[in-house]
From TrEMBL:
Species the sequence originates in: Serendipita vermifera MAFF 305830
Subcellular location: Mitochondrion membrane
Transmembrane segment boundaries: 14-31
UniProt cross-references to InterPro entries, sorted A to Z: ATP19
Entry keyword set: Membrane, Mitochondrion, Transmembrane, Transmembrane helix
Keyword Signal appears in the UniProt entry: no
GO annotation, cellular component aspect: mitochondrial membrane
Gene Ontology process terms (BP): proton motive force-driven ATP synthesis
Origin: domain of life: Eukaryota
Pfam families from the UniProt entry: ATP19
Protein name (database record): ATP synthase subunit K, mitochondrial
Chief location category: mitochondrion
Amino acid sequence: MSYVVAGRKIATEYLALATIGAIGGITAFQMRGSSKPKAKPIQELSATGSKEEEDFIRNFVAEAEKEDSKKHH
């Protein structure tokens, strides 16, 4: 069986293949992701306050990591 499309006879299997290809193409286009820019990484602590504050935070984090590593070993 065939259909007449734009004055030409088109077999049903070609119409089916064209439909599957169109759906696959549209799906691939939709799944490729957005063009939004990715989030920027967090900046260093130096932009937030004084040198003393930065040193305090770094020491606090280092001590917390030491305590945490002692608990796991």
